[in-house]
UniProtKB/TrEMBL annotation:
It comes from the Bacteria. InterPro entries: Homeodomain-like_sf, HTH-type_TetR-like_transc_reg, HTH_TetR, Tet_transcr_reg_TetR-rel_C_sf, TetR_SbtR-like_C. It comes from Actinoallomurus vinaceus. This is TetR/AcrR family transcriptional regulator. SUPFAM superfamilies: Homeodomain-like, Tetracyclin repressor-like, C-terminal domain. The lineage of its organism: Bacteria, Bacillati, Actinomycetota, Actinomycetes, Streptosporangiales. PANTHER family: HTH-TYPE TRANSCRIPTIONAL REGULATOR BETI, HTH-TYPE TRANSCRIPTIONAL REGULATOR RUTR. The keyword Transcription applies. Residues 35-54 bind DNA.
Length: 187
């Protein structure tokens, strides 16, 4: 009976945690220097609630980063269900690039928090997501077989290095097509 009494508390705690993560994501996107107290206030929770979930600023930053990366990784099946494999590849990489560009404040926070280890930990799930996209493209013949997902991820890194704005988006589109041509079965 003690478990059922704790279930609503756990559900509320999970809901609070998720809400705090969403608010922190937005706040860190705006500024990597947002304080924990400002995030708690913005989330409508007390500082104690925030600190129970995330004892340190670094804990919160890491949780936001991991959550965001996991959402990108988890989106692959939905993107593949909604698009032909090569279009899904395009959509997913553009979404990844948008995340990298939009996380400017979070990127600063991650850097100042010295959490390179956590960033390295997320490389494996992202590479696995790329492998799923490549496998689907390989199966329908839109890319050549045997491409290494880590190589393709590194190659596609140009997407988050183009300048912001319409010119950058157009450049990203052109570069994407050049990269895809290099991945095609004819090369």
């Amino acid at each position: 009976m003690a478990e059922s009494a704790n279930e609503p508390a756990r559900a509320d705690a999970l809901k609070n945690r998720e809400h705090i993560l969403q608010v922190a994501h937005e706040a860190f996107t705006e500024s990597g220097t947002t304080s924990l107290n400002a995030i708690a206030k913005r989330a409508g929770v007390g500082a104690g609630t925030l600190y129970r979930h995330f004892p340190t600023r670094e804990d919160l930053i890491l949780a936001v980063y991991r959550r965001d990366v996991q959402r990108l990784v988890d989106s692959v099946p939905d993107v593949l269900a909604a698009h032909a494999p090569l279009d899904a590849f395009r959509v997913w990489f553009h979404t990844l690039a948008d995340y990298v560009r939009l996380k400017h404040g979070l990127g600063e926070a991650l850097h100042t928090a010295a959490v390179q280890h956590a960033v390295n930990q997320t490389a494996a799930p992202v590479t696995a997501a790329v492998a799923i996209l490549l496998r689907a493209c390989e199966e329908d013949g839109s890319v050549r077989p045997g491409l290494d997902a880590a190589d393709v991820l590194l190659l596609m890194g140009f997407l988050w290095r183009v300048p912001p704005g319409e010119e950058g988006k157009e450049q990203a589109r052109r570069l994407m097509e050049l990269a895809i041509a290099g991945l095609s079965p004819g090369h």
